[in-house]
From TrEMBL:
Highest taxon above the source species: Bacteria
Keyword Transcription recorded: yes
Domain HTH araC/xylS-type: 73-178
Record carries keyword DNA-binding: yes
Coiled coil: none
Entry-linked InterPro entries: Homeodomain-like_sf, HTH_AraC
Protein name (record): HTH araC/xylS-type domain-containing protein
Protein source organism: Hymenobacter saemangeumensis
The entry's keywords: DNA-binding, Transcription, Transcription regulation
Length: 190
């Protein structure tokens, strides 16, 4: 079975997009477009998923064949975009509104598929994603905890602090003091 659309797991940043593009190009395929979680190939060079899977795996990615897995990875990519939306929107949408706006499905459906496939709720995944962003922002040392809380739409710095401790096992001040470089890869969070 040849395909021109590949759904790929573990793509979480622009460098991942570039890496997948390069892997496909070196293998003789002509990518038309590569975005987080998806590579579209030129119709002249459709790919056999069984031939592409080991190439992607060697570069740290995984080819997704099931629809539920594909949707889950797409949701993860959109949740990463949602963090930027939280930071920049004057009146940000709720998580459920943001997701239902992006997908032609109800939040209930998206939530069920995500939970079944990722073994984690969308809400818990989003919390982990936020905490990884908080770690990143803390490591830069440019913003106060309250400024970070404002950017990520926490109700208060205390709420963020409590959630940070719950997820990481460290208080924010312990993390700052130790400056733990133990940020998780986004792909390792599911």
């Amino acid at each position: 079975m040849k395909t021109t659309l590949l759904h790929i797991k573990n793509m979480v940043c622009p460098r991942c997009v570039e890496a997948v593009y390069n892997v496909l190009e070196r293998a003789g395929y002509r990518p038309k477009a590569v975005t987080l979680g998806v590579a579209e190939l030129d119709e002249e060079t459709p790919a056999d998923p069984e031939a592409v899977a080991p190439l992607l795996h060697a570069a740290g990615f995984e080819l997704l064949l099931g629809r539920a897995e594909q949707l889950t990875e797409q949701i993860k990519g959109v949740l990463a975009e949602y963090l930027e939306h939280l930071r920049t929107a004057r009146a940000p949408l709720t998580t459920s509104a943001f997701l239902t706006e992006r997908f032609a499905a109800t939040y209930s459906h998206l939530s069920k598929v995500f939970s079944r496939t990722a073994h984690l709720t969308i809400e818990k995944y989003l919390i982990r994603l936020k905490i990884e962003r908080v770690k990143e922002m803390l490591s830069y040392g440019e913003l106060t905890l309250n400024q970070i809380a404002d950017q990520l739409r926490y109700s208060s710095g205390q709420h963020l602090s409590n959630q940070f401790r719950q997820v990481t096992g460290y208080s924010v001040s312990e993390f700052r003091r130790l400056m733990l470089p133990q940020r998780m890869e986004m792909s390792a969070m599911a």
